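Entry 12.
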Amino acid sequence: MTSPTPCCPEYAAVTRRGLFRGVALAGVTTVVGSAVVTTSPAQALAPARSVLVVLSLRGAADGLSLVVPYTDPVYYAARPKIAIPADRLLARNGTFGLHPRLSALVPLWTAGKVAAIHATGLPVANRSHFAAMEAVEDANPGSTTRQGWLNRLIGTDASRSPLEGFHLGRSVVPTSLYGPQPVMAADRPDGLSIPAGDQRGRTRSLHTLWDSDRSPLGRGMRSAFEAVNGFGPVQAAADRTSSYAATDLGKALAQVARVVRGDVGTEVITVDQGEWDHHNGLGTLEWGSMRDNAQELATAVAAFFGDLGPHTGKVTMVVLSEFGRRVQENANFGLDHGHGNVMLAIGAGVKGGYYASWPGLTNTSDADLGVTTDYRNVLADVVQSRFGASIPRVFPGLKRKRVGFMQGV
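Predicted 3D structure (C-alpha cells):
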C-alpha cells in the first residue's frame, strides 16, 4: 500500500525534503546564485572544533513508533493495528526498542554513539505544525525578539562570518538560524557562486558597486562575497552522493558532509526530512510511510557518519521533530497530533543508550505521551558539552536540568 499525502492544510507547503516554500523571512537578505546570506559584516574563520548538525523531522514524527516502549502494556492496547511486535524491535533494553527499519543505526548504537531521549517536548502542548516549529526553533518562550537558538549559539563569539551557520535547503533559513548573526542557505554548496560568465569581471564590478555602500544591503553584499570566497574548500571537497541511498535525505546529507569536510569554520548546519505527518497511512511493518521514512532516516544518517572520515570525532547530530503523535491510533492506520516525543543524539560526545523519565501511557482518544523532559535541556546538554556556550544566553529562562547523555555534562 502507499500512503496518501498529508492532510493538514498548513503542512501542504512542506515537501519530501521538508523544505519551506511559504515561510516569510524577515529582514534584509542577499541572494548569490541559489544561496542566501543574511546581512552583516563578515570575516574569515578558523576550522571549527565542534560541528552540530540539527536534523528536523518535519511533520511531527511519531516517537512511539521510532523508539517503542514495548513493556508499557498501553502501547499495544492503544494500537491494535499499527503496534510493532516486541520480538521485531532492535536494541531492546527491557523498556524500549528501536523500530526494525532503523537497523542501519545499530552499528553506531552498539558503539555507544546513539542516545534516544524519550518523553521530550515543549513545556506546553502546541499542535499547530508551523507554530510549534517556530516555538521549538526560537526556544525563547514569551520573547518578541526574532532570533533562533542556533543563531544565539554562534553569536556568542566575536565572529560575524556567514560561514558559521549553514542551512542545506532552499534559500530560506529556518527559525533556529534566523537572527542578527549572518548565516547561509543553499540547495547545495555548488549553488554558492557568482553566476557563470566573466566571473572575474563581474566580481570586480560588484565590489565597485557595493564596497563603499554602508546600507544594510551593501553590508549584505559584502557578506555574500565573503561567503563565496570562503566556501571554496567546501566546493572542492569530493561529492560522494553515490555512496548514499538515492533518497532526498541521503542526497542532502551528502552535501552536509561536504560542508564538514571542507572545514571552513562552519559550526552549525541544519537539514530537514519531510513527510512525517502521519494522520493516515503510517502503516505496519509490511506497508506504510513509517517504515519507509525510518529506513530513509537510518540509512542516510549511517552513510553520513561513514562519510566524515577524520572529521567524525567533532560532529554531533541532533534529530528532533516539532511534536509527537497521540497514543491511540485512528481509523486510518495513522495517528493525530500529540505532544511528547523522542529525540536522538548521535556522534561526538554522546553516551549512548536510552534516557527517559517515563510517564506511562494512557489509552484514551485524546491521550498524548506526556513531556517529562523539556527539549531545551536536551539541546543544552549538547551545547554545553560540545561548545561550552552560555546556556542562559542560548536558552533564556530555561530551568536547567541535565539529562546526562553527553560527556562532561
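Annotation: The mean pLDDT is 87. Residues 29 and 66 are 38 Å apart (CA to CA).
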